[in-house]
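Look over this today:
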Amino acid sequence: MVDVAKLAGVSYQTVSRVLHDSPHVRRDTRERVLEAIRQLDYRPSSVAQALVTGRSRTLGVVSFDTTLYGPASTLLGIEEAAHDAGYGVSIASVKSLSRASVVAAVQRLRDQGADGVVVIAPQRAAVDALRHVTSDAPVVAVEGGPDDSVPVVAVDQHGGASAATRHLLDQGHRTVWHIAGPSDWLETDQRIDGWRSALQAAGAEIPSLLRGDWSARSGYELAPQLARTPGVTAVFVANDQMALGLLRYLHEIGREVPRDISIVGFDDIPEAAYFTPPLTTVRQDFSELGRRCLHLLLGQIESGQRSWSRIVVETELVLRKSTSVPRLR
């Protein structure tokens, strides 16, 4: 900073004011300082700034199972939003969302200087864990359930599942079967509720649901149960990977989609448009999810207080070629 000040012909305090975007610097002075910074390729020390401001401009993220599309895309959305706001991101990955692992991960990130922490909390166990996070830590949960322990940003899983089911009913199908996700996931319950409520509103029969584990393999292994059940013409699958497994099995036994069975997935993974046929699915806006998380977290950091709120991000039904009117039999 002293070298920049010398080159620009100003005091180092003036350089500091320019770096902190103070309005109390003349325009020509600011331009001289910025030109000196460019010439010297000067980068402010984040450690020194943290000592002065008491903030590291780093956010922590507690992440779980980033091999799955939803958690991985959520993490990317948070990182992009943080970068746009001038924050770095430090990630603590946990093998399980138990109380001990989540509380320890949050504390570890705080000890490393994170100004605030986002917890990606898609499982029921995480709701209990969040109740035990120290109240002086700025924390936001993603998909954290209805609990009021911390602020929550969540995708409208119920609305997305309901829209997927209504679309199939509107095509003329008498009812819609469902392949659900694992029982310990909050998103699973919300998608089941959305599917069931759409059927109830339409006065349609509610079939027994099948339960997978989010993998294409589980969709493939559950497919024979649907294929041998009379009257199955439409299936809402709780994620695109399980829908891929179902599509594979139906192709192998000569059942055409959508002529014989219509299918809707959930997530809109990048490959969904290239399935055979291209998959109708529910898109989640992970970029908006990241922006909303950051807004809530920065609000806590600025105010120094944890105020509870729940923000819901809407979904979008993406229509492709895997659904149609049922074939007359």
Remarks:
- Residues 59 and 89 are 5 Å apart (CA to CA).
- The first helix runs from residue 2 to 8.
- The first strand starts at residue 58 and ends at 64.
